[in-house]
């Protein structure tokens, strides 16, 4: 399947269609190592190597990004009134039709994956897959050791909803690390509430063995390759 060069550049999220045309005109695009002469040349993204300013285009169908979600933004693709995680991405990446894998509450920070691969997202979210999600919670008081035991057995929420067994590590001061294997609505906050504790801050550290890159400041993101994205299932 072939596509025009300017469309391939735009579809990769590198530049808008008009910017792609001007990149070609400026001689900043190579195809198979040779400077591209025109935008309308048709190429096969599976066979042809396209570079912009020496960087190879990612023409993969599915893309994966790791975002350090800051507090105060919604885990949604759009909202009429409030800022969403997609508002943190540059305009060019909008073409990729990314969406967040599951939700972090507005006031939760940390690791959020954005992708355009629905099956991948489903596999992470599905409780049947038991993908561990690890959080650090700042609490209003220090949990007793028996709270860890209650979490380990599987807590029942105030509305009767049963949660799978979770792992609680009591850290210094009034903070704790919690690992859950499903993603019910407000799950971690509600689990602590059921144990009589109030969550003041919540930050997701990891999904499976995939950890939030410590180089990413809140609001920053980076692309992951296929291999790194699959780490969540290891
Ligand atoms: N559990 C919560 O309560 N909130 C989150 O954002 C994630 C897990």
What does this 3D model show about the protein?
The protein has 234 residues and is α+β, with helices and mostly antiparallel strands. It folds into 3 domains: 3-56, Roll (Structural Genomics Hypothetical 15.5 Kd Protein In mrcA-pckA Intergenic Region, Chain A); 64-126 and 210-233, 2-Layer Sandwich (Alpha-Beta Plaits); 132-207, 2-Layer Sandwich (Alpha-Beta Plaits), CATH 3.30.70.1560. It contains 6 helices and 15 strands. The protein has helices at residues 5-11, 17-25, 118-125, 145-153, 187-194, 226-230; strands at residues 3-4, 29-31, 34-35, 42-43, 50-52, 55-56, 64-69, 99-100, 108-115, 133-139, 167-170, 175-180, 199-207, 210-211, 221-224. The strands form 3 sheets. Strands 7, 8, 9, 10, 11, 12, 13, 14 and 15 form a 9-stranded mixed beta sheet that branches. Strands 3-2-5-6 form a 4-stranded antiparallel beta sheet, with no helix packed on it. A two-stranded antiparallel ribbon has the order 1-4. A hairpin with a 2-residue loop joins strand 13 (199-207) and strand 14 (210-211). Helix 1 (5-11) packs across helix 2 (17-25). The model has no long low-confidence stretch (mean pLDDT 96). Bound molecules: uracil. Uracil binds at residues 104-105, 108, 186-189, 202.
